[in-house]
């Protein structure tokens, strides 16, 4: 699903391995994403995750 006609300009994304990445543009194609954490007490951005990620 890398159709850039569906680029959501409110969700920037540089993860080109994701099925929802816009391809030639750094945007997500989803209407909404879920952001979560893999830490019990996140203190840095590297502790957060895009839970909407889907491998191409």
Describe the structure in your own words.
It is a single chain. This protein has 56 residues and is mainly beta. It is built from no helices and 4 strands. The protein has strands spanning 8-12, 27-28, 35-37, 48-50. A two-stranded antiparallel ribbon has the order 1-2.
Helices and strands in order:
Layout: E1 8-12, E2 27-28, E3 35-37, E4 48-50
Antiparallel strand pairs: 1-2, 3-4
What can be said about this structure in brief?
This protein is an all-beta fold. The chain is 0% helix and 23% strand.
Structure keywords:
4 strands; mainly beta; two-stranded antiparallel sheet; 56 residues
Contiguous runs where pLDDT drops below 50 for at least 5 residues: none
**How big a fraction of the residues is strand?**
15-25%
Helix content: under 10%
Order of helices and strands: EEEE
What is the number of helices? Answer: 0
Shape: elongated
Termini, distance in Å? 8 Å
Q: What Rg is obtained from the alpha carbons, in whole angstroms? A: 12 Å
> Sheet bearing the most strands, described?
2 strands, antiparallel
Instruction: Give the strand order of the largest sheet, numbering strands 1, 2, ... along the chain.
Output: 1-2
Average pLDDT, to the nearest integer? 93
